[in-house]
Amino acid sequence: MQALKNNLTSEVFWLRLVFMLLSLLLVEIAASILVLLVIGQFLYRLFNESSHLTILEFSNSLGRFILHSYRFLSYQTEDKPFPFNDWPEAQDTPKAED
Fold first, then answer.
1. Which residues, 6 or more positions from 49, have their beta carbon under 8 angstroms from its beta carbon?
2. Theoretical Cys-Cys bridge with 27: which of 55, 69, 76, 91, CB 3.0 to 4.6 Å?
3. What contacts 87, CB < 8 A, 6 or more positions away?
4. pTM over 0.70
5. CA distances from 65 to 7, 25, 57 (A)
6. CB 90: neighbour CB atoms within 10 A?
């Protein structure tokens, strides 16, 4: 019962809820953007022999943002995702000709 009382009166607890709601909204937007990137990359590959490098890099960093957001939302980390921290950089992006 004491934990409930402490959490109900804790500013940090309620502030995290605000961050979580904002993060959830941004993840939903990011997922929609990712769908558009997938379609765009598919269409690009349909007419070309290689992937579009810019789409590869951005979709990589967008995926890292989504992962970081889900980790924050599920209490696996206290590190807030973008825009409360830096945008994640793409890592291990395959080359465009792959």
1. 97
2. 69
3. 61, 65
4. yes
5. 28, 13, 12
6. 14
Name the residue among 73, 97, 98, 96 with its Cα closest to residue 84.
Answer: 73
Q: State the Cα angle at 16 between 12 and 19, rounded to 5°.
A: 140
For residues 74 and 66, what is the distance between their CA atoms, to the nearest angstrom?
Answer: 12
pLDDT tens digits, 66-85: 999 999 999 999 999 999 99
Whole-number Å distance between alpha carbons of 31 and 42 = 17
- Rounded distance between C-alpha atoms, residue 92 and residue 59, angstroms: 12
pLDDT tens for each residue of 35-53: 999 999 999 999 998 999 9
Count the residues in the chain: 98
User: Rounded distance, CA 53 to CA 93, Å?
Assistant: 9
76/13 Cα distance (integer angstroms) = 15
Give me the phi and psi of 66, to 5 degrees please.
-60, -45
